[in-house]
Amino acid sequence: MLIIFNPVAGRRRAVALWRVLDLLIENGVKVEVAETQHAGHATELARQAAREGAFMIVAAGGDGTIAEAANGLIGSQTALGIIPLGTANVLAKEYRLSTAPRAIANTLAYKRCKRLWPGVAQLPGGSHVFVQMLGLGFDGAVVNGVRPMLKRAIGKGAYVWQSLWEAVAYDFPPVRLSVDGVAHQAASVVVSKGRLYGGPYLLAPQAHPETPGFQVVLFEKSGALSALLSGAALPLGLLPRCPGVRVISGSHVEFASSNTGILTQADGDSLPGVPRGVVSAESPISLIVG
Fold first, then answer.
1. How far is CA 96 from the centre of its chain?
2. pLDDT of residue 11
3. Which CATH number fits domain 121-281: 2.60.120.10, 2.60.200.40, 1.10.1040.10, 3.20.20.80?
4. Architecture of 2-118 per CATH?
5. Which pTM does this prediction carry?
6. Are 224 and 146 in contact (CB under 8 A)?
7. Which contiguous run of DSSP H or E holds residue 264?
């Protein structure tokens, strides 16, 4: 079993990984850990394992690491297992996967699969696969502004702090886009594969991560008050019903060229530019769910 791990995740997450590895080894599973050396390395490792005919590879990390590994498996028969070590672990919560070491080991051993159909952001310099969400505007500014040291120290609290700061500091330039050919404008946009956001919190109730297509969440009102109200509604499960929040279905999202400079994130990681569009991956991958 090849396990792909990002050593930048820190000592605490390395300890959590070894708890799972100890259980796998105790049960006779032969494991190999490959540490990533640079951005995109998880994709290269996963793709090579798929070419060699591996039944499964395992991504140990957060949603960003999982998305990198998934990118290397698209179009192959190799399944993806995950050891959730991220701050929010949104994909694991989407598929109701446990973060307890023994339950993770059992899930990987049973090898039962469900489909996961990633999205692809078309960037000027290439493409970026995401497994849960892509955000532009205020959402992207929050992720871009979070300091890694603070994130490691207080976890999701770092996003709360940054959201409060951005509510005052962010200028809320309009995001212009079209969904299946219909034009829209919003203060912030989240293109979601799954129902959840930021952990266990409901964002897009009608999302189906096992099929192609997206739920596009439009935050149509700008300003600090609207951003703070949305933040308060999220943990209460009320965000999709907030005034000024609209959720629409779509299969192809295009972003206007005038969006240059608007900050973007995918699966909790900053992106280097604004995507031209978002489409579904050419095929699904198999996700190990136990």
1. 15
2. 65
3. 2.60.200.40
4. 3-Layer(aba) Sandwich (3.40)
5. 0.92
6. no
7. strand 264-266
